[in-house]
Each structure stands twice: as C-alpha cells, then as structure tokens.
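Design job #97: recover the sequence.
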C-alpha cells in the first residue's frame, strides 16, 4: 500500500480498534511511524473511537482484592465471547480498581505482605504502561488529623480529565474507620499528573460517601452518599452536590451495610442512578438535564427469575445500545440485553472465573461492568515519571 498517500493511510488506521492498530505497527516502517505519531495520530484515533455510537468493549471489575480485571468485546450478533484477563502489579499485590478515564485505569495497590505501603497507580491496558504515583500519606502529618481510636484509609478514589488545563487529575477522599460501621470521611487530596506531590483540598464538605466506582460526567467525579450525590469539579477543584430523585437511602435502623445499594452510572451522556434491594425490581433514574432535580425520569427494570442458574445480588445498567435496548449486568456475571417489554437476551463468555463465596460478607463475590474505550497515549510521557512495577 505504499502507493497510497500517508493521509489516506492515517484515516484508515484511525478507524481500526486498538488491538488491530498494534498489529499494524509491524506491517512496515511507514505504518509504524504514522501510528507512533503521538501528537497527531493518537488523539485522532481516540476521538474516532469516541464517535462510535455503541460500546463494544467492557471491563469486568470483581469485588475484593487480588482479583484481576477482565475485558470482553461484545457484538450483538454473537452470543459467546472470550474474556481477557488484565494484570496490574502481579500476584503479590492487593489491588483495587477505582475507575477509568480516556482509556486510563486508576487503581490502588499494597503489597500482600504489608498494609502500610499504599500507592495509587495509573495503567493503560492498550500500551501496557503502568505508572506509580508518589505516596499520598507522606504529607498526612501536616493535615492535623486526630485519630485516637480509628484507622485512616482511602475511602474514595478516582481519575478524571480537566479540559481547562488539559491535565489528568486524581482525587482521593480519606476516611476514618472505627471498627465496623460506615466510615467517616475527613480529608481530600488531589494529584495532577505530571507533578510530584499531592495537594490538600481545604474545601472538602465532610460528607461520607459509599465506597463505589465514581461516575465521571460534566467534568466532575460523582459518588453517592445517604443524603445526596457528591460532585467534584475537576477544573475548579470545588465540591458540590447533586440532589437525588424521590428515593430514600437512609436505613430505618443502624446497619453495617445498607439494604439499598445505589450505583451511579452514565447512560447516554446522562448521570443515572440504579437503586435495588433484594427481591425487588430495579429503579433506574436518569437525569436528562445535569444538576436539574426536576429532570430526573424513572425507568423500571423487571427482574427475571426464569433462569434458575442465575443468582444475583443486584442488576447493574451498563449502557444503551442497539435498537434502544439496555445492556445489563445480571447476576454479577451474566450480560443481558433488555428491552422495554421485559425481554432478556443473554450473552455468555469464556475464560471468566466462577464466583467465589466470601465468608466475611456471607455471599458470593460480585462484579461491576463498565464500557471501555482504548487509548494509544503514553502515560509515561504524560506523567513524566518513571514507571514502576
């Protein structure tokens, strides 16, 4: 294809999936130079990927530590798929996935032999690069945190992109745990990729959020709490609140774990919340106009008990896709396509481990699933720091 102008080759390659692009790097030197042009080709390829109307690649995030993430490519015309395991730091680390932004994963990790060596990592599955951020606990002495009877830990963690400064930022909210029960959030820190230290945020509103994967939308990270949704604006670095629809998350009696499990997701570019409890249908609320309480609309997802082999704790909406159907995670492992009439279409995939029983929670481990768009950008260059295992 040397007779084709480089511009046409660039346009063709920019429409291929990430894995195919990597294969094309080995075709010839001309293609290699085009693909490795990080100032021109990489942003073009990522913008083209974002233009795809329907998500086809998803990541499965199992609960607990030391459990790998799996990636699955789904096409509605097929019903059987193969899951690919993504390794982060190796078998000797306890890892916990936080979220992803523009193809980059954010997660925390500690060595299995020590709980004191906590670090945050940024990982790009497409390029297999992994960068360890500086320790955030080194500056805790200046925070004036009094812990007479509690343990300090990272309660919430997430990465986002600040379009005003063209920079990735990582936010972590520190919590204090006094044994069993809901932790109390006390401080917040932010890290800008490319710098060397975390910065303490003085404007943290001291609201306790659920430990969950944040929803990234409208330039803000969002976490659910009992009273409302906490929002962190990545540009201004200010905190705010988004009001819930007509739902009540406050338990009638003190409980270690809430009976109602809210999960924030982004559906069709809208902030959404799925609320379910054992044995009930799932209430899916979608905010059509951001931060306008009156714009919440409700959809009801009917549970399906026809499949005896599917035992589930909750149903998690993932994305709208072909023919307006809603892709769901059903039973923490089964992907289904759901239409408004209540009809389910199941998708099965191989190479995914069986759910294991958790003796502490007295239940089987669960997974969450999120759409994923690959990015060829180099985080080594972006972070300007040495990658570490």
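Job complete. Output follows.
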């Amino acid at each position: 294809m040397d007779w084709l102008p480089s511009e046409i080759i660039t346009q063709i390659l920019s429409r291929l999936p990430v894995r195919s692009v990597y294969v094309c790097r080995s075709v010839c030197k001309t293609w290699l130079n085009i693909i490795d042009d990080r100032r021109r080709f990489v942003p073009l390829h990522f913008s083209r990927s974002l233009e795809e109307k329907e998500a086809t690649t998803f990541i499965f995030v199992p609960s607990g530590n030391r459990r790998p993430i799996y990636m699955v490519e789904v096409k509605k015309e097929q019903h059987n798929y193969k899951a690919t395991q993504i390794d982060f730091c190796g078998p000797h680390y306890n890892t916990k996935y936080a979220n992803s932004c523009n193809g980059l994963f954010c997660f925390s990790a500690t060595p299995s032999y020590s709980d004191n060596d906590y670090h945050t990592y940024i990982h790009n599955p497409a390029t297999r690069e992994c960068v360890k951020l500086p320790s955030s606990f080194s500056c805790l002495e200046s925070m004036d945190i009094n812990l007479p009877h509690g343990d300090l830990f990272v309660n919430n963690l997430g990465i986002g992109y600040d379009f005003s400064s063209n920079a990735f930022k990582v936010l972590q909210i520190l919590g204090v745990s006094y044994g069993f029960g809901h932790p109390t959030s006390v401080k917040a820190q932010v890290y800008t990729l490319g710098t060397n230290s975390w910065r303490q945020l003085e404007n943290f509103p001291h609201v306790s959020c659920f430990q969950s994967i944040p929803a990234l939308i409208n330039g803000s990270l969002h976490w659910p709490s009992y009273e409302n949704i906490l929002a962190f604006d990545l540009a201004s670095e200010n905190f705010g609140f988004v009001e819930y629809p007509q739902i009540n998350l406050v338990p009638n009696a003190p409980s270690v774990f809430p009976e109602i499990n809210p999960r924030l997701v982004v559906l069709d570019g809208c902030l959404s919340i799925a609320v379910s409890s054992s044995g009930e249908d799932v209430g899916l609320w979608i905010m059509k106009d951001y931060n306008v309480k009156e714009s919440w609309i409700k959809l009801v997802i009917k549970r399906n008990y026809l499949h005896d082999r599917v035992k589930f704790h909750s149903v998690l909406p993932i994305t709208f896709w072909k023919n307006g159907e809603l892709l769901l995670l059903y039973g923490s492992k089964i992907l289904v396509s759901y239409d408004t009439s209540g009809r389910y279409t199941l998708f099965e995939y191989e190479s995914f481990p069986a759910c294991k029983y958790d003796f502490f929670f007295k239940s089987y481990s669960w997974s969450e699933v999120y759409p994923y768009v690959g990015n060829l950008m180099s985080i080594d260059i972006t972070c300007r720091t040495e990658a570490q295992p």
